[in-house]
């Protein structure tokens, strides 16, 4: 069950991949997931992909934590690699979470 994320910052990354270098993409994605989880203010991630389209939501304690992740040198280098190799396009949105709840079937 997901935790209450009220008050957190959500970074929404929506993308379409090129299909080039799937093994390199997978390794980079795993490395970024692990690196993000070590950053101050990191609160979690949700991700889904189908047919080359992907949506990843990362959650941060506050705006400063999200901005620090954006500027992290390894993340910045991987982002540039993604622009050159793995993505046709992407969109990024940042939002404050005002309300959060979840439900799970028993």
TrEMBL record:
Residues 27-80 form the ABM domain. It comes from the Bacteria. Gene3D superfamilies: 3.30.70.100. GO terms for molecular function: monooxygenase activity. Keywords: Monooxygenase, Oxidoreductase. InterPro entries: ABM_dom (IPR007138), Dimeric_a/b-barrel (IPR011008), Jasmonate_Hydroxylase-like (IPR052936). Pfam families: ABM (PF03992). PANTHER family: ABM DOMAIN-CONTAINING PROTEIN, BLL5343 PROTEIN. This is Antibiotic biosynthesis monooxygenase. The lineage of its organism: Bacteria, Pseudomonadati, Pseudomonadota, Alphaproteobacteria, Sphingomonadales.
């Amino acid at each position: 069950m997901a935790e209450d994320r009220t008050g957190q910052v959500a970074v929404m990354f929506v993308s379409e991949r090129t299909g080039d270098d799937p093994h390199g993409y997978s390794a980079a994605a795993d490395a970024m997931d692990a690196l993000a989880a070590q950053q101050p203010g990191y609160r979690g991630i949700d991700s889904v992909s189908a047919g080359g389209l992907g949506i990843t939501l990362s959650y941060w304690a506050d705006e400063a934590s999200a901005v620090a992740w954006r500027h992290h040198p390894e993340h910045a280098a991987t982002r540039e690699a993604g622009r050159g190799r793995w993505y046709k396009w992407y969109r990024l949105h940042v939002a404050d979470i005002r309300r959060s709840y979840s439900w799970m079937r028993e």
